[in-house]
UniProtKB/TrEMBL annotation:
It is found in: Cell membrane. It is a multi-pass membrane protein. GO terms for molecular function: ATP binding. The keyword Transferase applies. This is histidine kinase.
């Protein structure tokens, strides 16, 4: 946000600077160089003496008055050949000199003017020019005055712009903070702005959108939680009924069918338990933190795995220390990742843990088929399964990775998936220093 308004400030300053140059060149094109006007004003006393005192003298007194002016004026007045005056001036000013105008040379603090056009002052006066130099022309001071003038104008523009931008910046900061809080799971976050704020209509629309999203998510959570609880009762009744039926069944084929139905009910019961776990994580405001040793938890996760033909390689590193977090949730996340790796591994599953001063990294790898790069973000969505795992025998319910992701996120950590050196998938849990303890 600060970068946005810094760019806006720089843009305004560049616009004012560009406008200053444009104004200068336009005025110079239409009305002449402003610096010439400044120099003419500064040399106005000498020009006045020439035009109002010397030129108004009769022809036979013109040179006498010029000499008197030369005696009293600090500027120097000379008579030079007209060709020398032409040579001292740029070509664009020759026309004005030929007309008899006073032509300024601000750079050399001088001006030139023909004595007269027809030789009426004295013999040969039409071929001579007056050169006045050492004039009180100070363009440096004039430029400073112009710069100060434009700086004052720029500040006069920037002050209201800064005040206007500040109010916008504060309002946008509020919206940005609300967006961050809402994205972090604080669904009750709202933007409270005054109706006079320029972005107030936008804030109201964001608040209305947040209300709708919060309502939809809460309705979804309540539905999931209610359905999960309501399913428990009929599942329990069916299990009891199947047990009674199995006791009285004498047909082996019927007994086999009853066993299959019991397996289906067990699967359905597991699904309900997963849904309830998901619902609890969605409604959790934060983990129930306690200080626990990390290495014993990792040992429990590996010991609790069902025996499989794959080889399990465990590398826990050194000095894992303690973690300040929810032991059950972190253990659930690691266990889900290990069981997921077992499902797809061909020959080997690896658990590697590394810790440094600022974070702890827990990696679970397998040598299975891996996960395509375009699918790596979606696998953490509830009920999402890759095409090759549609079979419930290997694919589960599609909730294990989602539960692991939510459990780690509640601790401020991250769970990502990448390519493993073993050839399959590599799931990496990163816990920040806020949950670490020596």
């Amino acid at each position: 946000m600060n970068r946005l308004f810094f760019r806006f400030f720089v843009l305004v300053m560049l616009s004012i600077t560009a406008a200053t140059f444009v104004i200068y060149f336009v005025f110079a094109r239409l009305f002449g160089d402003p610096l010439d006007d400044i120099a003419r004003r500064q040399a106005s006393a000498q020009i006045f003496l020439l035009e109002q005192y010397v030129d108004r003298a009769p022809a036979d007194e013109w040179l006498g008055r010029l000499n008197k002016v030369r005696e009293v004026s600090e500027a120097h007045f000379d008579l030079i050949p007209l060709d020398q005056a032409r040579a001292a001036l740029p070509a664009r000013q020759h026309e004005a000199l030929e007309r008899g105008d006073v032509v300024l040379d601000p750079q050399h603090k001088a001006f030139f003017r023909r004595v007269d056009l027809h030789g009426d002052r004295y013999i040969g006066s039409n071929e001579e020019a007056i050169r006045a130099y050492n004039l009180p022309i100070d363009l440096g001071q004039a430029l400073t005055m112009e710069i100060v003038r434009y700086v004052v104008v720029a500040l006069a523009l920037l002050v209201p712009i800064a005040l206007w931008s500040r109010s916008h910046w504060q309002a946008l900061q509020t919206l940005s903070r609300v967006a961050d809080e809402f994205g972090a799971g604080q669904l009750s976050a709202r933007a409270h702005l005054k109706p006079a704020d320029a972005v107030y209509p936008l804030a109201e629309r964001i608040n209305a959108m947040a209300e709708r999203i919060q309502g939809l998510l809460e309705a979804q959570k309540n539905l999931l939680h209610s359905v999960s609880h309501e399913l428990r009762t009929p599942i329990a009744r069916l299990e009891f009924a199947l047990e009674l039926l199995a006791e009285r069944a004498g047909d082996p084929a019927l007994t086999k069918r009853i066993a299959a139905m019991e397996g289906d009910l067990t699967e359905l019961n597991d699904l309900v338990n997963e849904l309830l776990s998901m619902s609890k994580l969605d409604n959790a405001q934060g983990p129930q933190r306690t200080l626990f040793e990390l290495e014993p938890l990792l040992r429990e996760c590996t010991d609790g795995l069902h025996p499989r033909p794959q080889r399990l390689h465990v590398d826990l590193g050194e000095r894992l220390g303690s973690v300040d977090g929810d032991r059950r949730l972190i253990g659930r996340a690691i266990g889900n990742l290990l069981r997921n790796a077992q499902k797809y591994a061909a020959h080997e599953v690896a658990l590697r843990v590394r810790r440094d001063d600022c974070r702890i990294e827990i990696a679970v790898e397998d040598d299975g088929p891996g996960i395509p790069e375009e699918e790596r973000e979606r696998i953490f969505e509830p009920f999402y399964r890759l095409d090759r795992s549609r079979d419930r025998a290997t694919g589960g319910f599609g909730l294990g990775l989602s539960i692991a992701h939510k459990a780690i996120s509640l601790h401020g950590g991250h769970l990502k998936v990448e390519q493993s050196a073993l050839g399959g998938a590599r799931f990496v849990i990163s816990l920040p220093d806020g949950v670490l303890s020596a």
